[in-house]
């Protein structure tokens, strides 16, 4: 029997062998789960997203109102926190999910993937290309998915090491603090411009879009709203900057915990040639990780704490992921596949440990990935 690796890893202690029929059965079970949930999507989901939108707007109003009373530090600090939470909800549970098309079925003028504009410097259209298309199509495929390292980090042992990566921890910290700007520059592929693989003339359109969106956002946070508070201009600038920092650190942490903790797999382009739907599903499960938590935590994460379910079903309303999660986990257990989940502290610690280890050459560290999945080739591929 000919076996072809889906995820190539040397000297892995645990190997899982799946037949082609098993892989397609996994795909069929996941398709059936998606179809059943989507058939039930309706008014309750519309009510849910509008409830979140209402909460986000109230938090933003409270936060901006508190900027007028910096002489009452407890109120001002509570306002900064409220504004930070409103920005998290706007970016994650609302913006990220709306722009995935999860609510296009409502046929609303504002809350659909074509019209929505979120409270961040990154143009929505550019994000949808780098995230919805590139990342979700080529999830964790080295050389294709630029979310692996965001163009500045070494996040996998198969990425060739050079002395630049000694600064991995510093680069990751800067990306965390300035995450909205890192996301904005993502589609620009700055590293390819520096290496001469892409010309500045190729990105003129992207730069114009970035300038329009970023200048509008900067004016809003650091000129217009501060000016409205009159003599409290500077404290409002500080408050808005702090709220953006809260959003950046939280968003970065949730996203990195969903993609890069120990056990999250990466793949080579050749692993994905002639990939079937079932194989694609398995790649999503192996390349993603969940974070344990309660209902409020899941809402604050945009339900990206269910990153496995999100990668399997990116267009399903994210508030449905908690009810899908047990079934996905059961499918993994049925076929012996790992279901990577853990507490926020565990996943975050694992991620930062990986960032630190990958700043060093491979010979100085141990490979923590411990699962390889082998998939039987199809007759069509063998014949080819």
Summarize the structure.
The protein is mostly helical and about 375 residues long. It contains 15 helices and five strands.
Provide tags for this entry.
single chain, mainly alpha, three-stranded mixed β-sheet, two-stranded parallel sheet, 15 helices, globular, disordered C terminus
Describe this structure in words.
One of its GO terms (molecular function) is oxidoreductase activity, acting on paired donors, with oxidation of a pair of donors resulting in the reduction of molecular oxygen to two molecules of water. Residues 75-341 form the Fatty acid desaturase domain. Pfam families: FA_desaturase. The chain has 384 residues and is mainly alpha-helical. The protein contains 15 helices and five strands. It has helices at residues 20-40, 43-66, 73-98, 124-137, 168-177, 179-185, 190-194, 204-228, 233-259, 277-286, 295-300, 307-312, 321-334, 344-357, 379-383; strands spanning 3-5, 15-18, 290-291, 341-342, 372-376. It is globular and about 70 Å long. The two termini are 16 Å apart.
- Please give the radius of gyration in angstroms: 22 Å
Count of domains: 1
Distance between the termini: 16 Å
Counting DSSP H or I runs of 4 or more residues, the number of helices is: 15
**Biggest beta sheet attributes:** 3 strands, mixed
Morphology: globular
Q: Helical proportion?
A: 55-70%
Topology as H/E string? EEHHHHHHHHHHEHHHEHEH
Structural class, from secondary structure content? mainly alpha
Estimated share of beta-strand residues: under 5%
Which parts are unreliable, with pLDDT below 50 for 5 consecutive residues or more? 1-12, 379-384
Rounded mean pLDDT is 90
> Would you report the number of β strands?
5
Order the strands across the largest sheet as they lie in space: 1-5-2
